[in-house]
Write a structure and sequence with these properties.
The complex is a heterodimer. By secondary structure, chain A is mostly beta strands. Chain A is 0% helix and 50% strand. Chain B has a single domain, classed as Sandwich (Immunoglobulin-like). Helices cover 0% and strands 51% of the residues of chain B. In chain B, strand 6 and strand 7 form a beta hairpin. Chain B is globular. Classes of the chains: A mainly beta, B mainly beta. The interface between A and B is medium-sized, with 26 and 26 residues.
């Protein structure tokens, strides 16, 4: 049973560029949440997708956008990259219609470096 | 506004000792309190979790103690081993207010267990 998978593992971009990160949820999961983890900090919630719609959003600017596909996989897009966007981006999945709907499993993350 | 405060920031324990990490929360709507363990270069892995209707939960060497009136909870690692050396995050979530179980994390505790 594959867990949450994210790609790519590492990414280097320059300021002003755009980036797309990808996530495949754990088998049987239909909800995907994205988090940003700066170095030495706890993960910060970006947004959550369920039924292909953004269900909730954290305190992040509109430069951060996402998408969920019919197979429940998800993308995180960041436009006009800033140096401060350098972080580990984590994807977490959960199963909305189950008793375990509050349990989130994380992928290994994508390390984004903005130069 | 930091809704979950975690301490200490770092902790050094001898092999066989007890590691204790504390967290305090502000939002009384939180109803799920997980602890995650994160190794360098990896995503957070769910370790153990508790709901506020119980005061303690034990799984192997890991125990969560929960004090609802004080809005505090703690992780105890008994017989700490060098392999436990990692960063530990407490978190909290709720379904109420449209939060849909987004996780709010503490800033993390770097645990080092010396052999």
């Amino acid at each position: 049973d594959a867990g949450v998978t994210q790609s790519p593992t590492h990414l280097i971009k320059t300021r002003g560029q755009q980036v797309t990160l990808r996530c495949s949820p754990k088998s049987g999961h239909d909800t995907v949440s994205w988090y940003q983890q700066a170095l030495g900090q706890g993960p910060q919630f970006i947004f959550q997708y369920y039924e292909e719609e953004e269900r909730q959003r954290g305190n992040f600017p509109d430069r951060f956008s996402g998408h969920q596909f019919p197979n429940y996989s998800s993308e995180l897009n960041v436009n006009a990259l800033l140096l401060g966007d350098s972080a580990l981006y984590l994807c977490a999945s959960s199963a909305a219609g189950t008793i375990a709907k509050n349990i989130q499993y994380f992928g290994a993350g994508t390390r984004l470096s903005v130069l | 506004q930091q809704q979950v405060k975690q301490s200490p920031q770092s902790l050094i324990v001898q092999k066989g000792g007890i590691s204790i990490i504390n967290c305090a929360y502000e939002n009384t709507a939180f109803d799920y309190f997980p602890w995650y363990q994160q190794f360098p270069g990896k995503g957070p892995a769910l370790l153990i979790a508790i709901r506020p209707d119980v005061s303690e939960k034990k799984e192997g060497r890991f125990t969560i103690s929960f004090n609802k009136s004080a809005k505090q909870f703690s992780l105890h690692i008994m017989d700490s081993q060098p392999g436990d050396s990692a960063t530990y995050f407490c978190a909290a979530s709720t379904m109420s207010g449209g939060s849909n179980y987004k996780l709010t994390f503490g800033k993390g505790t770097l645990l080092t267990v010396n052999p």
